[in-house]
Design goal:
By secondary structure, the chain is an alpha+beta fold. The chain has one domain: Phosphorylase Kinase, domain 1. It has helices spanning about 50-55, 60-75, 105-110, and strands at about 15, 20-25, 30-40, 45-50, 85-90, 90-100. It has a six-stranded antiparallel β-sheet.
């Protein structure tokens, strides 16, 4: 199977002529998460994408990720982050989500802190 060639970094790139990737927020076992600016309205959004290595090693990752995007985009609950869009760059899918500033789930659960935007009903983590 031919290997896909991915751009070494998506930082500084505008996806779909709309989402300018500013910085990497973090990563987990399966995905990377980036802060981006929606150039249509100037708002901050989050883009989540499967890790490059997983895309190369497992062809079912893209279909499962797209299933996740589809399922999450149909949900509307104050404790679930909203999905705004889905885009692709160099065969790599990205989920565009509402940005909730204020730290990480780990940070919020490990420390006592004053209320932040994360405490708003529309930004609570499920």
């Amino acid at each position: 199977m031919a290997q896909k060639a991915f751009h070494p970094s998506v930082l500084g790139i505008t996806l779909e002529g709309r989402y300018y990737l500013e910085k990497k927020l973090g990563e987990g076992g399966m995905a990377e998460v980036f802060l981006a600016q929606d150039t249509n309205d100037g708002s901050s959004v989050v883009l989540k994408t499967p890790k490059r290595g997983l895309l190369l090693d497992n062809p079912t990752v893209v279909s499962r990720f797209r299933g996740e995007v589809n399922a999450m985009s149909q949900l509307d609950h104050p404790n679930i982050v909203k999905i705004h869009d889905a885009v692709t760059f160099e065969d790599r899918p990205f989920m565009v989500m509402h940005y909730c500033s204020g730290g990480t789930l780990v940070g919020a659960s490990n420390t006592r802190r004053p209320p932040t935007e994360m405490d708003r009903p529309d930004c609570r983590l499920a």
